[in-house]
Design brief:
With 165 residues, this protein is of the alpha+beta class. The protein contains two helices and 13 strands, in the order αβββββββββαββββ. A hairpin with a 7-residue loop joins β5 and β6. It starts with a helix and ends with a strand. The relative contact order is 0.20.
Length: 165
């Protein structure tokens, strides 16, 4: 009995630290990142699970094209999964934000879903603070037929007007 309790006292803090600081698996809900995540297959939506890497995220170690998990600026209890389109200093053309062209402020980035018609993103709430980035999606881990590394790219038709190098 004491061995079980002793094991739990060691295992639980190690597991919590791992999931909090290194990586964890999360279910992707919704259609905002289609077709990359949760693609339609024969009129049915496949639900993806992704490995979210937290290691190094607090150092803002992300770049244009990365898929990230962010805390919603409108509802901090909700996590969103979006693609970084522009980083601080970049000029971006909004699809529906109150200003058509804007410079992403220091310490912020512009995020969008790949499915433009079904995404609640920076086109609605503007640039987000880099501090809201929670993790970076690095692999699709479920279902097994979709195992793959997440590619970092800017979707076709979306370009930064004036990249800051």
């Amino acid at each position: 009995m004491f061995k079980v309790i002793g094991s739990a006292l060691v295992t639980v803090p190690v597991a919590v630290t791992f999931f909090d600081c290194v990586a964890y698996v999360a279910k992707v809900e919704g259609s905002s990142m289609q077709p990359v995540l949760n693609p339609l297959s024969d009129k049915e939506c496949i639900t993806d699970f992704v490995l979210l890497k937290r290691w190094g995220i607090k150092n803002c170690n992300v770049e244009r094209g990365d898929v990230v998990s962010v805390l919603s600026p409108c509802d901090p209890g909700q996590k969103l999964i979006k693609r970084i389109i522009a980083v601080e200093g970049d000029m971006v053309q909004s699809l529906s934000y109150k200003r058509r062209h804007l410079k992403v402020p220091d310490g912020h980035c512009w995020v969008e879903g790949d499915h433009k018609g079904a995404s609640f993103d920076s086109n609605h709430f503007g640039p987000i603070s880099m501090g809201l980035i929670h993790a970076k999606a690095v692999y699709i881990v479920w279902p097994p037929s979709r195992w793959q590394k997440m590619e970092s790219f800017i979707p076709k038709g979306r370009t930064v007007l004036n990249e800051r190098l």
